[in-house]
């Protein structure tokens, strides 16, 4: 399988890259989704701009109680960096679930979120973390919430000429327990359903809880009905089961050869309960 | 428009003018002539095409050669010593009968190298997790897991 011909640029600076993208070039990061699509000729960009080599996009650093992750940070970096492992373990745990060693060595967080595959892993965690996505074009920069960024299948808030330059996640407070639980399609490794949970205790009750779900429908979402059914209630198995039952409320579940809509919705309930249980056991 | 790339492959420097759409595996096999790296599924699932680029295992069917400009590439041909003495992982694959047809073996060996570099004493579960991106249709994997464990004991 050979891609259509294209022009390739590997600029030395982000400004230069944004200039080429403003003129219609397509950004290439790790290429783990774009290159297979080009080989299948589902995508035939005429001009690719390589972002993966830009030092300006390759960092993980802590500033003002938040972690700033450059778009070109690989899944391997996010999985293993002491900063993410120590201060945002949910994101590191989620990165470890993506693909395989070789894919995690090349694939980047910016490329993954910009691609917005409905079965991608990161979106569940980013929803639960209430992450911010920083977008930049040749004419300026703006920051959008995860909830506003992911719109639908392969559809995001990115405007023509804009790229993802950074993902911002909170430094996790020490008492919060987090967990990512995934039912994976064993051949592709993609999520049939993936659930990220952040749980705080309030005495014997659930305190604030955030739940992000991927794979179930066209895009990731916050399961607010589940969150509302937990907060303030006793931290018991009964509460968890009753709350998790709302995981797919109002959601138009995807159906494909791996899982029917009904089965997917049932998986979402089960994996939401697992994620809450696991996160609760890690909270203090 | 063709681009000139400079790549070190198994320690030897190469300069070629290539089409941007040329995949790294085709560059290695057809331009350089190193056919030890195998093209299996062509869809980044099977891992037979695994090589190292700047010390990181990658699937060379899902990378353009131009993306490897300025990097150091290591293929299975670069593992043995100049005198022909096999790399300990190759030795372990041989001794543990970790192959039948051998098609997946170059990729298996290259990813095993990465597994052991990052975790010198892996559990069987960690070995299996590490081999997740590589398919073998002959062995049922048990002898491959044995080989990685044996190589770990040999202190790769």
Structure notes:
- The complex is a heterodimer of chains A (284) and B (156).
- In chain A, the strands form four sheets. In chain A, strands 4-5-10-6-7 form a five-stranded antiparallel beta sheet.
- Chain A has twelve helices and 14 strands.
- In chain A, a hairpin with a 2-residue loop joins strand 4 and strand 5 (66-70).
- The mean pLDDT of chain A is 97.
- Chain A has helices spanning 14-22, 34-39, 75-80, 82-87, 89-96, 101-106, 109-115, 122-128, 146-149, 224-230, 237-244, 261-282, and strands at residues 7-9, 26-28, 47-50, 60-63, 66-70, 132-137, 140-145, 150-152, 155-156, 163-170, 177-184, 191-202, 205-214, 221-222.
- Chain A has three domains: 7-50, Uridine Diphospho-n-acetylenolpyruvylglucosamine Reductase, domain 2 (2-Layer Sandwich); 56-170, Uridine Diphospho-n-acetylenolpyruvylglucosamine Reductase, domain 3, CATH 3.30.465; 177-282, 2-Layer Sandwich (Enolase-like, domain 1), CATH 3.30.390.
- Chain A is of the alpha+beta class and 284 residues long.
- Chain A is globular, with a radius of gyration of 19 Å.
- Chain B is an alpha+beta fold.
- Chain B has two domains: 3-78, Ubiquitin-like (UB roll); 88-153, [2Fe-2S]-binding domain (DNA polymerase, domain 1), CATH 1.10.150.
- Chain B contains five helices and five strands, in the order E-E-H-E-E-E-H-H-H-H.
- In chain B, strands 2-1-5-3-4 form a five-stranded mixed beta sheet, with helices on both faces.
- In chain B, strand 1 and strand 2 (12-18) form a beta hairpin.
- In chain B, helix 2 packs across helix 5.
- The longest helix of chain B is centred in the C-terminal third of the chain and has 14 residues, at 105-118.
- At the A-B interface, helix 2 and helix 6 of A face strand 4 and helix 3 of B.
